Amino acid sequence: MTAGTADGDRREPDGTEQGREPDGTERGWRAAAREALYGPEGFYRRTEGPGPAGHFRTSVHASPLFARAVARLLCRVDEALGRPPVLHFVDMAAGRGELVTGVLAALPEETAARTRAYAVELADRPAGLDPRVEWRAEPPRRITGLLFANEWLDNVPLEVAETDSAGTPRRVLVRADGTERLGEPVGGEEAAWLARWWPLGGEPGLRAEIGLDRDRAWASAVAAVERGLAVAVDYGHLARARPPFGTLTGFRDGRETLPVPDGSCDITAHVAVDACAATAGGPPGARLLTQREALRALGVTGARPPLALASSDPAGYVRALAGAGEAAELTAEGGLGDFWWLVQVVGPAEGVADVFGDRPGRSTGAPGGSGSGQG
C-alpha cells in the first residue's frame, strides 16, 4: 500500500512547507501522514515484524481466492488483447508481494511464461520473493495487461478540511501526537475540488478529506497503461453519501485506533471513488462495481458445495466448504464485499471492457454507500 503517492512537496513563497508552523510542530495532514507512513522511519518503511498484515487484513490476506480471481481477470485481459508476446501484471502497493505471488502461482503455465510481473512498493524487497517479480518504487510505463491497485489509494496522503464557527472550510493542522487545530481557509484547487466533489454546508464541525492528490495519483497510474485495464480496489464513497465528519482513522495491531502521525500506526481514509473515476477519464470511461459484483463475475460466489459431496468425497467437501466460507467473507455485505472496484479500460483494447461479463457496473454518479472499514 505504499506505491508512489504522486505528491511532490508544496512550498509557501518563503520556502517553508505549506501548513507548517515556524517551530515545525504543526502541519497539514497531507505532509504529516506522508512523513509518518513513508518517511525514513515511517510505518510502511519498516522491514522487521510481520509487516502491514500484522496490523490489518486485506482481501489478499483473507483468502487465496482473491489472488486466483485476479489471475482469472488477467487471463481475460490477455485473451481480449489477443495474447500479446509479453503480458504485464503490475501490483500497485504490493506490501510483501503476497498478491503478485498468488497471481503468478494461479496462472496457466503458458500465460505465466509470457507474464512480466512488477511489484510497486516503497519498502525494500522482501527476502525469498519469486525471482520473476521485478520490485520497483514506481510503475513501469507502456503497460500492456493489467495494473491492479488493492487498497493503495486509501493510503495516498491528503489534506483534511473542517468548517469553523462561521462555516468556512479550513485546513486541519496536526501535531505528531495527533493534536489538531484549524489553520487557514482552504483555497485554490483544493477549494475547487471541495466545491465539486465534497461541498461542506455551513454547519460548524463538518469535515472532508480533499481527494485531489488521490485523483492525480490514480490518473498517473492509469497513464502508465498503454493497452489493457487499470483497477483500483478500495473502500470508499460516492457524492450522494459522503460521511459528514470524514473517515480519517488509524490501524495498529489489528485494531482501529486514533490516527496519530508518529509512524506507529497506519493512517487511512476512505476514497472518493467517483472523483478518481472522473479524473482518470478516457473512453469508454470508468466503471464502478462493488467487490461483491466483481468477484462474482470472476467466479467467486460463496455457494456451498452439494451435501452429497460429503458422502462421496469427505475431504473434498471440507475443502469446498472452507472455500465457500472464504468466498462469503470476500463478498459479504457490510464487509469486504462493499469495497469499490474502479475499472478503467485504456487504449485500443477491444473486448477488455467485457471482461466482467454482462453484470452492470454503476455509473460514477450513481447512489451508493461507503465501503466498510479497513480489510
Automatic annotation (TrEMBL):
UniProt keyword Methyltransferase, yes or no: yes
Residue spans crossing the bilayer: none
Keywords: Methyltransferase, Transferase
Coiled-coil spans in chain: none
Region (Disordered): 1-30, 355-375
Record's compositionally biased regions (Basic and acidic residues): 7-30
SUPFAM superfamilies in the cross-refs: S-adenosyl-L-methionine-dependent methyltransferases
UniProt xrefs under InterPro entries: NDUFAF7, NDUFAF7_sf, SAM-dependent_MTases_sf
Chain intervals with Gly residues compositional bias: 366-375
Record-linked PANTHER family: PROTEIN ARGININE METHYLTRANSFERASE NDUFAF7, MITOCHONDRIAL
Protein name per its UniProtKB record: SAM-dependent methyltransferase
Species annotation: Streptomyces composti
